[in-house]
Amino acid sequence: MKKVLLTAMALLTIASTSVFGMYGVDGNDWINFLVHGNQFRARMDQLGFTLGNDTIKGTLGFKADGGWMGQILSGNNSDIQLDATLSAGIGYTSDMFGIGVGYNFTYIDKYLQVHTPTLVFNALNDNLRVAIPIQVAVTDNDHGLGTKFTGVGFNQIELRYYTGIDAFNLIRVDFNYKNGTWENALNSKSIYEVFGMQLRLYFLNTQVGNVTVNPYIRIDYHQALRGTVLNTDYLTIGDMYSGQSAYAISENTAQSDIYDVSPFSLSIKPVLSLAASSDVVSLYFEPAIGYKVTSEKRKGASQITTHALTWAAYAEMYVRPVQDLEWYFEMDVNGNVTGKTGAVANQDLSPVLFETTTGITWYLPSFGANE
Description:
8% of the residues lie in helices and 58% in strands. By secondary structure, the chain is mainly beta. It has one domain. The longest helix has 14 residues, at 2-15.
């Protein structure tokens, strides 16, 4: 009981100060919340705390995935807007299971704000982890034009299962679904609806000399369920609200009225993950190469199919001069996907797109850990 009271007091202290948390709107952001220890994190795109004890923990704050990376506020005196997603969460953990709830608030503009409650659940000694975020947004004045916009989606529902068997050690599945509806003053509705799924199968976790090798197969599938354009990015409600209404179709029009084969894309990418560490530095690398096909067939037209050879290189570096303090550096070089919504691979861009983030993590002691 004393531990619970100490933790509750700590969480109230956090809530009463202007500190920030570090979880975004995706299931991937929240999937490890219940296994994170106490820490303060400050990176280019996130700033915050996770605090608690072995039973109860909480977080509060923001991640800059609502606007430009690292930008919290922008605008002038008459129009200041929040460009980061504010997050808060609380969780319960035990030897049997863990459960938690999170909440994200994303300010898109003065007409639209997105709410993302998230449920997280761990079981089987944390080997099974599930994160389920649900995005909801409603505005009666889309871009000031008087159109009602309703956005609902599951933003990267994620499930991970660590098998404990080196030959087939991890299964990771992500689901993404978005539905945007626009209704004008005449009660005429148009709908844009997309679905995405990603499967990762990790196998042959092996030690080769001083390097840990854990290859995996990544399979991505995206399809336009309602609408005339396939977007292979994992759309947020903000993306859909700001630009996808042009791709919507009337609620009275079925997708099969327009297409014999609705727009879809499928990619298969073998990835080789490599990890090595010393007393001070830990390194993680992911070189990958794969194949991608995108296709559609409109009524009365020939099928349009494109093929691509994709490649990527991803790396992480952790520098820990002492056990409790860490400097993190992340690098992602991608030769085929720009990461920009609606952009075509390598169109008007250099053939190599370099993206990165960096920052520190300070690992803090657990409240009441020795009592």
